[in-house]
Structure prediction request, 185 residues.
Amino acid sequence: MDTSTWVVIGIVVAVGLWLMMTYNRLVAGRNQAKNAWSQIDVQLKRRHDLIPNLVEVVKDAMGYEQETLKLVVEARNAAVKATGPAEIGRAEAALTAATTQLFALMENYPQLKANDNVMQLQEELTATENKISFSRQFYNDSIMGLNNMVQSFPANLIAGMFGFTEMPHLDIPESERAVPKVNLR
Prediction:
């Protein structure tokens, strides 16, 4: 074989290797994003399981606050039924608002603050909220990496050929963007 044939073979092999590596990077990015979403899902499930326990423990002591407890249960049920990042984000924001309101009302009941079960459930929910926050950050970082590959030239050519598309980020709902007011007087 002459030199030009070897050059053509080398170019074909190089392009083939590049296609394979790019495709594999896209698959790895998509799988990492799916894994990140699964981690959020695990933490949300834990949160959804803890909330009914908390409501059950506090409902007798908070006889006058049944409407708040009802809102928490309804928000939890809506969050469990939600599908897709956008709908889940909205439902979870409503659940966060409802549980925040519940925690604020619980401060008015000294017997709840002295109850070990209530305190343990509240601590577990707080820890779970932190884990959800970290999982959301990991998810958004994973999505950013995948979306960068899907949008960047020349990887976008491979992404388009094999059906890789951008995935949505989890955005902070407007209700959570407000800066809390602190009054130290």
In short: Residues 72 and 100 are 9 Å apart (CA to CA). The helical segments are 3-58, 66-81, 85-106, 110-113, 116-151, 155-161, 174-177. The chain has a mean pLDDT of 86. The longest helix spans residues 3-58.
